[in-house]
Amino acid sequence: MRFKKRIDNTKRGYGILAKYCPGLIRAKVLQSIAQTIAPFVTIWFSARIINEISNERKLSRLVLYVALTIGINFVLSMIKNVMEKKVNDKESGMWNYFSKVFSDKQMEMDFVNLEDPDIRKQKQKAEENLFMFGNGLGQLVWDTSGLVEVFIGIVASIALTVSFFTSKSGNAIIDSPIWIVGLLLIVILSGFITSKLKAKEQNVFEKWTESNVWFNRAFMFYGHELYSDSARAKDVRLYRQDRFADCEMQKLQENNEKDNGLLRKMSSCQSGLALFKGICACLCYLLVVAKAGLGAFAVGSIVQYVGALIKMVESFGELSDVISENKIYTEHLEKLYEYLDLPNRKNTGNVHIDESILKSECEIEFKDVSFKYPNSDIFVLKNINTKLHIGMKQAFVGANGAGKTTFVKLLCGLYEPTEGQILLNGKDIREYDYEEYSRFFSFVFQDFKLLAFPLGQNIAANINYDKAKAEDCLDKASFTDRLKTMPDGLETYLYKDVSEKGVQISGGEAQKIALARALYKDSPIIVLDEPTAALDPIAEEEIYRNFDNIVKDKTAIYISHRLSSCQFCDEITVFDKGEIIQKGKHIDLLKDTLGKYSQLWNAQAKYYQNA
């Protein structure tokens, strides 16, 4: 990767951190500055104190040096500790903020892309790269300290060693400029060796992590989700699926035994680096002591020069390390950016929608609409031509996979037609402002989700909500009796993920809450995708009986396999193999005894008739 590209990737990474973890890098930099300067302050004042003791021994000057040493270090220590506390607080939550990077991207993408296997795989790799090994953004955070420390270390050590090279001992060999060249060679050699050892260590580490990717995935499932997910708990116990986990854990043990060689190689690289640093330190000691012994400078300066020279060699070695690390994490960042740079929502539109239109004269038309998923040649819907009128109660029926749910996802703009147009009052819905258009739909999907938040917040999808309105929506959804049993009413937490006082709810109760949530949104168009699938017959009959009262003058689109629910609808649309094959009222469709609707109706009715 070109150096300019690495700089651009690093700057963009810091931009992401500034947006999602504000204050983290600033605190990290201040902490590193205070931590790095402190040793140089001590080195410089220690040299002054020793020189004063060995020469004039002025008490006032000694007191001043000691006071300055203690005072400056105290201030630096306070800054370091305060910043360290902030860094710890920020870092403890940064992984949650990193998750939001992905969730924000998902909210910006076209919904159909979320279901694209290639994009999901790309997202999974980016997440594994970041969350399992800390690569990319995590490395950028941690390596910020190294970058600051290297920069300050080089500047400060050079400043403290200038006088070492300018001082004269009277010995031509010791005072020769060749020692400067020698030091430069040591610095260059230090950087080269450090770079090579670090690169070798990183290569070994990458081999080790690659060999463990399969285990990380398996561990998250077999070691966590398999046991913690209550939805799977029954099957795990009844079918003893925990045995799969035992097999995977056994593979882990075998894999660890194979990886011991890789871990030893990493340790040998680190040991070699420590040995080289020790040799450099010895050479610095010999050079400084030799020059001090010939009277080039006071004995106290030995402390200053030895410390500064060693730090200079280390800093230049670490500079090479920082550059190598930058190459590694910018490459990982590049993979993250590839995912973040995937195209966002194609059509957001800018035409304003007057809410009064959707409550009065409004018509939505599917005109020659066909749809297929990305990278697929199979059309899920084919040549759909139909109109939806505001205020009508409509039912969509058909066998599984007939295209009903895909139809309503196209209707609300989650999908875009592969062919054809969806028109609102004659204008393509892609021309309208997407956020405005989506506000006019309320949905209860088959796979709806409730969050482990208070009941009222789940209904309103907001922290602040109208309690009276929420209770009214729950009443319409036949949830009032259950609400009375909840200890904190609308403030009762659902599930126990967040609160120990949370309550578990059944599938039928969850479905009623989802229906109440759709009603609370008070959108002109409400789409119910199998809203009574998890309800008992009595609760289902109650929902049907009150259906007209629930939706009032709203447009209702009702998707169901239970055809008894279609009798009160103004119009029934029958889907089959991605096409609309029948439309009409319940009575009229039954008269067509050879039609699909009649077949579906009789197939369900015979079980009740025979009873």
**Strand order in the largest sheet:** 6-7-8-3-9-10
Distance between the termini: 74 Å
- By CATH, the topology of the largest domain is ABC transporter transmembrane region fold
User: How many helices does DSSP assign?
Assistant: 21
So, the CATH homologous superfamily of the largest domain? Answer: ABC transporter type 1, transmembrane domain
Gross morphology is: elongated
Which structural category fits the helices and strands?
alpha/beta
- Strand fraction: 5-15%
Oligomer: single chain
The averaged pLDDT comes out at 81
Instruction: Report the top-level CATH class of the largest domain.
Output: Mainly Alpha
Rg on CA atoms, Å: 35 Å
Number of strands: 10
Q: What is the annotated CATH architecture of the largest domain?
A: Up-down Bundle
Low-confidence stretches: none
Question: Approximately how much helix is present in the residues?
Answer: 55-70%
Describe the structure.
The chain has helices spanning 3-20, 24-54, 59-108, 111-114, 117-132, 137-166, 178-228, 230-238, 242-293, 301-340, 355-358, 404-411, 434-438, 455-460, 467-476, 480-485, 507-521, 537-545, 547-551, 586-591, 596-610, and strands at 363-371, 381-389, 393-397, 419-424, 427-428, 441-444, 525-529, 555-559, 571-576, 579-584. With 611 residues, the protein is α/β, with parallel strands linked by helices. The chain has a six-stranded mixed sheet, sandwiched between helices. 29% of the residues are buried. The chain has three domains: 3-340, Up-down Bundle (ABC transporter transmembrane region fold); 349-440 and 525-580, P-loop containing nucleotide triphosphate hydrolases (Rossmann fold), CATH 3.40.50; 450-522, P-loop containing nucleotide triphosphate hydrolases (Rossmann fold, 3-Layer(aba) Sandwich). The model has no long low-confidence stretch (mean pLDDT 81). A hairpin with a 2-residue loop joins strand 4 (419-424) and strand 5 (427-428). Helix 15 (467-476) packs across helix 17.
